[in-house]
């Protein structure tokens, strides 16, 4: 085996399926310092950080929106604490469950141009602890045109040792 890792992976399935869990397991495997045949060890410092979703080379993007406290340019990092809590409570979370977790009423979240700028800044830095930087984009179909246009080149030709995992909801 030559251990080549594609720079982008798409995980798709119906909401509530194990596709996001699979993307997290894949990312954990890439960062594991004591990989076992076909799986991460589950015991090293990297795996323990992945179990808590706090590994410094693991980044998330998901639909966000303006709130009373975040009135300008919302990005995923503004909601990362809530995201980790919701994902740890329910790794099979649906979009509506995410919105309910945040107390969202009739608003629709989106991945906006400010998010793409934050992604570009983060991923142009070198990996902190792992060999790979991993960006999991949950619900990329919620990305507006401005954000997708800014990210297209980065996804096609990312910085070295950067992996994108996109979780896409399949239509019912």
CATH topology assignment: Rossmann fold
Q: What is the CATH level 1 assignment?
A: Alpha Beta
The H-level CATH homologous superfamily, spelled out, is: P-loop containing nucleotide triphosphate hydrolases
β content, as a range?
Answer: 5-15%
Distance between the termini: 37 Å
Please estimate the helix content: 25-40%
Structural class by secondary-structure content? alpha/beta
The CATH architecture assignment turns out to be 3-Layer(aba) Sandwich
| Main pleated-sheet profile | 4 strands, parallel
Total individual domains: 1
Identify the overall geometry: globular
In spatial order, strands of the major sheet run 1-4-3-2
Radius of gyration: 16 Å
Low-confidence stretches: none
Mean pLDDT: 90
Helix count, per DSSP? 6
Please give the number of β-strands. Answer: 4
Output the helix-strand order: EHHEHHHEHE
